[in-house]
Amino acid sequence: MSLYGGIEGGGSKFVCAVGTGPDDLRAEARFPTTTPTETIGRALEFLQEQHAREPLAAVGIASFGPIDPDPASPRFGYITTTPKPGWAQTRFAGQIQRALGVPVGFDTDVNVAALGEHRWGAAQGLDTFVYLTVGTGIGGGGMVNGALIHGLMHPEMGHIAVPHDWDSDPYEGFCSYHGDCLEGLAAGPAIEGRWGQRADTLPPDHPAWALEAHYLALGVMNLILPISPQRVIMGGGVMEQRHLFPLIRREVQQLLNGYLQSPMIRERMDEYIVPPGLGGRSGVLGAIALAERALDGRAPALR
Amino acid sequence: MSLYGGIEGGGSKFVCAVGTGPDDLRAEARFPTTTPTETIGRALEFLQEQHAREPLAAVGIASFGPIDPDPASPRFGYITTTPKPGWAQTRFAGQIQRALGVPVGFDTDVNVAALGEHRWGAAQGLDTFVYLTVGTGIGGGGMVNGALIHGLMHPEMGHIAVPHDWDSDPYEGFCSYHGDCLEGLAAGPAIEGRWGQRADTLPPDHPAWALEAHYLALGVMNLILPISPQRVIMGGGVMEQRHLFPLIRREVQQLLNGYLQSPMIRERMDEYIVPPGLGGRSGVLGAIALAERALDGRAPALR
Q1: Cβ-defined contact of A154 to B228 (cutoff 8 Å)
Q2: In this predicted complex, what is the ipTM?
Q3: From the list A157, A221, A260, which residue is nearest B161 (CB)?
Q4: CA separation for the pair A231, A32 (Å, rounded)
Q5: Can you tell me the distance from the alpha carbon of B9 to that of B237, in angstroms, rounded to the nearest whole number?
Q6: Which residue of A128, A140, A164 is in closest CB contact with B151?
Q7: What is the pLDDT of residues A6-45, one digit of tens each?
Q8: I need a surface site. Which of A291, B121, B203, B234 has the fewest CB within 10 A?
Q9: Which tens digits make up the pLDDT trace of A188-216?
């Protein structure tokens, strides 16, 4: 059985692992995201050490973005226009590939987390689904017909427009690009900005949660209607508040108002909108799954 | 070269054709949609007559919906829960397949129109794009990674939620399920309901069009962000008002506000949001293209 390396490269921390799947992770390293040189250097050092011990067949990278996911582009494998200081136009996958000499797959953090859920988590056996993460921002990825969603760039599901009733919720939204887009109204900083305290300090009966569920339900509905996913997986820090799930499920049903005549939506919402099967490990395990695909050609890779 | 039959089965009219592509349509029939027995009977009669003259290799059907597009379902090939009198639970593809004995592909009218645009129209060479039709309703289809979007059911892009400023636009929306969803605010009947006259009688400088472009731009943005299409094709009766295109393009750019750093969106909007390459024939030609795919196994089909 081939051994794989995975890098979950997030904006605040990196998680690196080596293994073959969730029950066989042989080594792991976590460290904060500092400069590209230092951070990618540490990831590389970890993988090289592991590679010397037992050869890795391929590596997968789940990267914060925006990135260039187009294998035909000279910038494939780069982080592109991020506002994160020092990281714009950073060659990422290429450094790993050059040093290790194995195929390196590269995609957005959320698409790779979606892949992890597909391989070992809550999306096993599905070919069309959405993975949404709600934390300091809102991001989404997923598959249609068994392939990760790409296209012109990659999905930016957090920035969709949703109805905002200014009378009942005068909070203006915090997105620097769009103000009151879904992320601007419903990511963690919006909860804190609106109520003046951290989301995880608000009790479950605080009105913040009904409003949060309302916005997230609008967002989820706006993903269900165009993509027709077989399941919607919701992860990230805010979704650790598990009491949000029943609120969101009920509100999505109310918003759709019987329009989609699927038994899954009408009767089995508990199975339709769900937390990640892999908990907080969707990303790093997804990177292992991406490495598998990079090796057998199902995912674009630097070779 | 194989000869194919196509049926564009719409809620108000049926268009049937036989041929191999846009430059080789050998026969065509159009008739109003009445009862299922009469209407499907006329389509079948036309195809049988053509089939007797020169055998058809396969047939494609573009159907109004909702439909069951799942080839594993016993109801594959049916129109399902439509409110259209007499048409709920109508076996459609099965009747054609049984009578002609050739593979019959079956999908939504908008997905099939998208396929037509992919085969011979404005989406040639793309693998991820959206086709949106704005007429008496709003519907959307498209491809991701070269496959038509399915999943739990099929896309229902017209019913997404969009911001609605009740102060500047007190019109409540006409959608019987959602009131002021995109379709409720921006399909043809909304223009007529809001301004008290038919859309095609409003002059190009009427304020109706700026508002219409605003809602359609919100809808298009809400499709671009989750799906990341390489192009958005907009057809249907309302989009015959070609002056809408520059308004929509400008407003989509303003709404995105520089967030998506793609040259296509920043500099080449004229190529990004476009009318159908096949004009009003996307549907029936798409049905021919679906027949091709049904024959070679790229599309699910009754066989």
Answers
A1: yes
A2: 0.95
A3: A221
A4: 32
A5: 17
A6: A128
A7: 999 998 999 999 999 999 999 999 999 999 999 999 999 9
A8: B203
A9: 999 999 999 999 999 999 999 999 999 99
